[in-house]
Amino acid sequence: MLFGKKKEKVHFNPGNRDDGVDENFVEETVNKIDEDDVEVVLKNEENIDKKFSGNNSLSKYMELGRIMVSMLKDVKNGRYKNIPWFTIATVVMALLYVLNPMDIVPDFIPGVGYIDDVAVLTMGVGWIESDLHRYLDWRLENDLGI
Question: How far does CA 51 lie from the centroid of its chain?
Answer without folding.
Answer: 14
